[in-house]
Structure formats: structure tokens, C-alpha cells
Amino acid sequence: MKFFWIIPFFLLQDTEAFLMKNAKVKLCLQASPMDGSLLLEDCNPESDFQDWSWQGDSLMNQGTQSCLSVAEADRVQTSLCGSTGYMSWDCSNSLLSPLGSSQGYLVANKKGVALNNVRGLKAQWQDVADRSVCEEKAAEAEQDRYFTAALASTHMYDPTTGNVTLALGIDQVELEELLWFFRREDPSTWNYSILALSFVAMILGLLLLSINVVRNRKRKIHMYREAEQTVQQAEVEAKQALMPAQEYSLAEPQKQEPVPQDQRSGEVVVQWKDGTVTSLYAERSEDATM
Fold this sequence. Notes:
- Helix content is 38%, strand content 22%.
- The protein is of the alpha+beta class.
- The longest helix is centred in the last third of the chain and has 64 residues, at 188-251.
């Protein structure tokens, strides 16, 4: 448990950011992500484009990951860290000036910032707590120095225990474990592994998708065939239901009694309830003769 005190140093590396507020206009320096220009806006701690951090003697913007640099004689902007131009800044009494140059100080104006020989409040830069940005640089340097001393300090020998320990109280074995845990190595192998796993996952997803499509198609075909068979069976049942009525209608004329042989063409006969059959017009003709 001795080495856990050093973990905050790793966690806080590259995260010590602060706002740069001008002491005169009370506005904060903000980097533009489009053209690298610098603006003075209302202070917003949530904006990454207003967060700055000391990287040695350079001031890096957290939002654009670019450094404060001198572009021309008096124009200041942000550009890629490590490119040509003045990127190192000297900080003294809240005044920022290009290191190794006599171009003046970083001063706030109506258009943003520029280099000028003015040393008043317009040239003084503070954080949101009204502390000088130079204190931020000193704190960053002290943290780096303290952290380096923790890892590279000389060994001390404790005669009571016979162990060789570091000046800050951790032995060599714990130091090696700590350095291995927070090691920095080439992440290419890990990136390639993740890429290969992503490709395998994509192939597996496409395979499952194709299987699902085929199964759905088979299920729809099966449902269509079942519906077709149901319709055909209903048609057969309907035809079978109509067959007895047709047979009855065909057999009914056979039950009719045959026409008497002595019936003349055009003669109208009447069949009475008792079964006797008489000719209607024949009787009328007889009545007429009488």
C-alpha cells in the first residue's frame, strides 16, 4: 500500500488545465478550432477551448491540442505544437512574453490579443481564482520535479532492516511493479487485436443475419402452402355439400308418374286427390253437346 500515494501523479498528468483571464477586461482567452485565432470571451470552465496547460515552457490549449505561438511581428495565434515559430513563453509577475525575444508582452485588445510593450493590467493573466498563471507554471514544474524525484531518487540503506529503499519510502520491488503497472508501450498490437475482433464480430453478425433471413423465408413459404391447402380443402368440402342436392334434383323427375297412353296432344288433364285423372276440356265439350 505504500506506493498508492504516487497514483494521483499519473492520474493528474496532462490534466492540470486552467483558464487564462485577463486582469483588465475580465474575459478569458479562447482558441478557435477553425483558424487558430484567439478570442476573448466570457469565462466558461466547461469549455475545453478556454482550458490551457503548461507543457514545459509552452501553453497548450486542451480543446484544439495546439500551442500558443507568435505568427508575425505582433500577432499571436495557436498552431501545432512543435512547428516553427515562438512557442516558448516566459512568465513573470503575471506577464507573458515570448522566450528569447523582445517583442513585448501578451496584451488584450478589442480584436483579441497581440504583443505589445504595455505592462499594465491588460498584460496580466490570471486563472479563475485570480492567481497568476505564473503560479500555475511553477506548480506544474514542482509537480514534475517531485514526481521525477520519486522515481529517480538515490537509494538509501536502512541498517536496521538491511533493505535498500528509495528516499520516498518504497523499495525497488514495489517501484518495478509500479513502473510495470503504469508502463507506456506501443499500442499497435492492442489496436490490431481490437480491429481483428471487430472484423470477426461483423462476419458473425452477417452470418446470423443471413440465417435469420433464410428461416423467415422458409416460414413464409410454409405458411403460404398451408393457407393454399386450407383453401383447397374448403373448396372440396363445398363441392361435397352440393353433391346430394344435385343428385336429388336429378332423381326427382324419375319419380313423376308417366303420362297416360290415351292422353291426346294438347289435352289438359286434372289429377284429383283420390288419384283419378280426368280431362278438363273433354267434359266441357260433353256438356256443350248435351
